[in-house]
């Protein structure tokens, strides 16, 4: 077993109705009176920003709302957010939204204090000093960003994604209220839920896995896999929504203390080039990477299959892994995740570029099996041609 560290600096407040207590939690844990709210236009339209803003002001806090975050958050929006947070002299940043909003807020927290661009802090542990405290309030059950120490931002000039990884950007507080996901549309439920499942799977199988992260990852799978279908088919199933959100947060803790791997590398490559939603991209490539990786650690892949109930204890590891790949393919189909070839603008002539981008991703070395640019190219080809078969 490799040496490892485990450090979770985020305090978690989880429960139905916890969103309504945001102001109380802020006053208990954060110094200062000036709150910079980071969100997106969709969250603002449904009234959540107004609820939060009113509650904070009722308790004597000053607020400023930055609502320019887009899916696959852009570097230039983070830079603008940093300028506006600095001008407001924010004491705290509250991220209200999905993973894109929380990732953008993390970058804004850095840029408010240190200036520059997200590119200046890309990689591991490149933030030289403390940044603005962050409270994360997720509105999807998917990214786990509310408890992670990473921020994934689109480099708009290079059309690639960069990742800032540093414990200094981990939220000080995560307010996790399943009620915020009750009206989440089915397609978004599907894509974000699949993202959470991939987090758990890659945390468990990657080379940086460790016993604590493994335990979290397996527990996350138990919450996510059976409840994802339920929430997709019946968005009003409150118990399933709650279970899925808990699983998403646990998966975030798992991969934050291990890593993701080649599924994410490929997903981030097409996200940077085609602006593909991240959870959709992960879903497209998961069966192909599982098939590729299985020989590196058959036991772990079989363990996943048994954990989520698609294989029995008496089945061989080979048969269990075959079942796992098939189950992931079927799940994506049931959730109406599109095929890679059906995406707008996808062109096989881009595969060499996408393979190079995937290979250069910082999580490539963490993949369970050694993987080359050529391997990535062939995986993109396989995903484009059609369903995986063993």
Automatic annotation (TrEMBL):
The keyword Oxidoreductase applies. One of its GO terms (molecular function) is alcohol dehydrogenase (NAD+) activity. Transmembrane segments: none annotated. It holds the Pfam family ADH_Fe_C. Residues 189-384 form the Fe-containing alcohol dehydrogenase-like C-terminal domain. Keywords: Oxidoreductase. Residues 9-178 form the Alcohol dehydrogenase iron-type/glycerol dehydrogenase GldA domain. InterPro entries: ADH_Fe/GldA, ADH_Fe_C, ADH_Fe_CS, Alcohol_dehydrogenase_Fe. The keyword Magnesium does not apply. Signal peptide: none annotated. Belongs to the iron-containing alcohol dehydrogenase family. This is Alcohol dehydrogenase. The lineage of its organism: Bacteria, Bacillati, Bacillota, Bacilli, Bacillales.
């Amino acid at each position: 077993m490799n040496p490892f560290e485990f450090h979770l600096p985020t305090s978690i407040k989880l429960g139905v109705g916890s969103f309504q207590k945001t102001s109380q939690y802020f006053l208990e844990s954060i110094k200062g009176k000036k709150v910079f709210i980071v969100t997106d236009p969709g969250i603002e339209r449904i009234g959540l920003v107004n609820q939060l803003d009113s509650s904070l002001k009722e308790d004597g806090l000053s607020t400023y709302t930055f609502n320019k975050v887009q899916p696959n958050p852009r570097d230039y929006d983070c830079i603008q957010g940093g300028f506006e947070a600095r001008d407001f002299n924010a004491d705290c940043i509250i991220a209200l939204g999905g993973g894109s909003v929380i990732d953008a807020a993390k970058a804004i927290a850095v840029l408010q204090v240190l200036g520059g661009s997200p590119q200046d802090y890309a990689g591991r542990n490149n933030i030289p000093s403390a940044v603005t405290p962050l409270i994360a309030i997720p509105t999807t059950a998917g990214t786990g960003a509310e408890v992670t120490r990473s921020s994934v931002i689109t480099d708009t000039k290079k059309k690639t994604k960069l990742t800032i990884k540093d414990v200094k950007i981990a939220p000080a507080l995560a307010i996790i209220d399943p009620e915020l996901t009750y009206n989440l549309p089915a397609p978004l439920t599907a894509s974000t839920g699949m993202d959470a499942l991939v987090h758990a799977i890659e945390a468990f199988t990657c080379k940086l896995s460790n016993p604590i992260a493994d335990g979290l990852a397996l527990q996350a799978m138990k919450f996510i896999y059976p409840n994802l279908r339920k929430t997709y088919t019946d968005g009003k199933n409150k118990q399933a929504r709650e279970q899925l959100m808990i699983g998403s947060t646990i998966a975030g803790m798992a991969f934050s203390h291990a890593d993701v791997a080649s599924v994410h590398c490929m997903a981030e490559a097409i996200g940077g080039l085609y602006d593909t939603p991240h959870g959709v991209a992960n879903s497209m490539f998961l069966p192909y990477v599982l098939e590729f990786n299985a020989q590196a650690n058959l036991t772990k892949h079989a363990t996943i299959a048994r954990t989520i109930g698609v294989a029995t204890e008496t089945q061989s590891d080979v048969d269990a892994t075959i079942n796992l790949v098939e189950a992931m393919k079927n799940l994506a189909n049931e959730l109406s995740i599109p095929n890679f070839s059906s995406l707008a603008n996808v062109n096989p002539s881009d595969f060499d570029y996408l393979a190079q981008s995937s290979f250069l991703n910082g999580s490539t070395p963490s993949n369970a099996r050694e993987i080359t640019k050529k391997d990535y190219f062939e995986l993109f080809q396989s995903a484009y041609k059609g369903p995986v078969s063993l």
